[in-house]
Amino acid sequence: MTPKDVDGDVHDQISRIESDIDQLAKTLDRCRKAMLLSKVSIAAGGIWILGYVLGAIRFDPTFMVGAIAATLGGVVILGSNSSTSQQTIAAMEAAETERDELIDTINPRAVGMGGWEPARPTIH
Fold first, then answer.
1. In sequence order, what are the residues at sequence separation of 6 or more whose Cβ sits closer than 8 angstroms to the Cβ of residue 104?
2. pLDDT value, residue 14
3. Which residue range(s) make up the domain with 12?
4. pLDDT score of 119
5. Quick check: is 84 in a domain?
């Protein structure tokens, strides 16, 4: 294998890892949206139950079951997406570390300004 082939393979690996990172970012975004929705569900169910306890809302079995289901369902969804979010963040960090290590293996050169200097204002 020539050095050019190795560089091409490394570039392919970096591209694959970056694609994986993008997919993980999308998963993380979906988790955050689901967590927000679950918090809204918990709050709505809790407010309904609290309203009944304080006497502001009359008792209706259908609404009470819905409030309890919304609260419990929100807790379950929040917990599930919270752990998925943590796992996704860990996977993203590992992928970014792997990508950075691969980038270091190709020994990138820093591109300098090549002696260019900004123009200095003239004082009259």
1. none
2. 92
3. 8-105
4. 62
5. yes
